[in-house]
Amino acid sequence: MSVELRPITQENLRAVTKLEVRPEQSDFVAPNAVSIAETYVYPKAEPRAVYSGDELVGFVLFHPLDSDSRGHGIVRLMIDHRFQGQGLGRAALEEAVAFAVREHNAQRVRLSVVPANEKARGLYSSAGFVETGEIDHGEVVMVREI
């Protein structure tokens, strides 16, 4: 399964803001509209729509790591509830890592996860992310060295 990360545009903005996780996952990730709004406060943030072919399936938000010039951060990653369970989350994660390396020469990718989000923690661990022992705003920090 392959995915592509595309910029948020006038054409896809509303559709991206309508993407939602399952109700029981709503405490694990901020709504996409909030994430996109944050890009005005954090101008270095980069929102991307996740597409599988021509189908919009998810969203990812990147932030540079100010304290680590070799690293880049994945702040949000979500797959719409209609497309979960199809391998798209793993594909989106791998494409997000590839984006950080390709576009920002990242040697380290950092993300954080709500401790109760066992599925995401398992996915990140299986993709080579390691828990650092650090807690950031109540979330477990994980890093993948490239």
TrEMBL record:
CDD domains in the cross-refs: NAT_SF
Keyword Electron transport appears in the UniProt entry: no
Domain of life where this protein originates: Bacteria
Gene3D superfamilies given in the database record: 3.40.630.30, The crystal structure of the spermine/spermidine acetyltransferase from enterococcus faecali
Annotated keywords: Transferase
Domain N-acetyltransferase: 3-146
MF terms (GO), sorted A to Z: acyltransferase activity, transferring groups other than amino-acyl groups
PANTHER family, sorted: GNAT-FAMILY ACETYLTRANSFERASE (PTHR43415:SF3), SPERMIDINE N(1)-ACETYLTRANSFERASE (PTHR43415)
Protein name as it appears in the record: Putative GCN5-related N-acetyltransferase
